[in-house]
Amino acid sequence: MNIFRLAGDMTHLLSIIVLLLKIYATKSCSGISLKTQELYALVFLARYLDLFTDFISVYNTIMKVVFIASSLAIVWCMRLHPLVKRSYDKELDTFRHYFLIGGTFVLALVLNEKFTLQEILWAFSIYLEAVAILPQLVLLQRSGNVDNLTGQYVFFLGAYRAFYILNWIYRYLTEPRFTRWIACVSGIVQTGIYADFFYYYFISWKNNSKLKLPA
Amino acid sequence: DKQPETHDEL
């Protein structure tokens, strides 16, 4: 464990907690893509199957449970909470995310570290996480609504990406056999798509703040 | 055969 990875895990967790608190506090999820949140929950469920079989550390186990619980809590809020679900932009959140699930699963069948169920699902979760933000990006392009996409959420999501890339550079430099090509290449693609999301977020945020200026 | 690395990253 290095400081970059710890910071990356903390900012990743904070981004999920900040979003959950925002949705729960305002009882609104307008502007949030349920599909992206479902894909994130699927990423954690597919990746943390080894929760009960391989014990790596207390930290690792606790964080896996917290990631699964918090991402499912967001999906539960948006799907079932009587007040929140009314504010879901169902007609705008139309990205066909099943193609993302199918495509990344096929890729995981081809590109994996070992052709075992656990490794295929792990690679699937890595590829899926890279593209999971796409429904949110499309929804943001369509709605321009950043009410619930707080600046903190976007900041922590970006910090998570930055710290993980620093973590891989650090591990590559300090560990003789650090070769995690699947995680590194997919993580770089994920960071690129995040940068695109950040660009649309910044544009929308600027337009909204212009709109809100006193006439 | 090469055992895949245990995935210690979250």
In short:
The complex is a heterodimer of chains A (215) and B (10). Chain A is mainly alpha-helical.
Structure description:
Chain A contains eight helices and no strands. Helix content of chain A is 73%, strand content 0%. In chain A, helix 6 runs parallel beside helix 8. Chain A is mainly alpha-helical and 215 residues long. Chain B is mostly loops and 10 residues long. The model of chain B has no long low-confidence stretch (mean pLDDT 75). Chains A and B meet through helix 1 and helix 3 of A and loops of B. Chain A: Keywords: Endoplasmic reticulum, ER-Golgi transport, Membrane, Protein transport, Receptor, Transmembrane, Transmembrane helix, Transport.
- Sheet bearing the most strands of chain B, described? none
Total strands of chain B: the figure is: 0
Largest interface: A-B, 18 and 8 residues
Instruction: Summarize model confidence as the mean pLDDT of chain A.
Output: 95
Inertia-based shape of chain A: globular
Number of strands of chain A: 0
**How much helix, percentage-wise, in residues of chain B?**
under 10%
From the N-terminal CA to the C-terminal CA of chain A, the straight-line distance is 52 Å
Separate helix tally of chain A: 8
Strand content of chain B: under 5%
- What's the tally of helices of chain B? 0
Low-confidence stretches of chain A: none
The coarse silhouette of chain B is rod-shaped
List the secondary-structure elements of chain A in sequence, H or E: HHHHHHHH
Portion of residues in helices of chain A?
over 70%
GO molecular function (chain A): ER retention sequence binding
Protein name (chain A): ER lumen protein-retaining receptor
Organism (chain A): Lupinus albus
Family (chain A): Belongs to the ERD2 family.
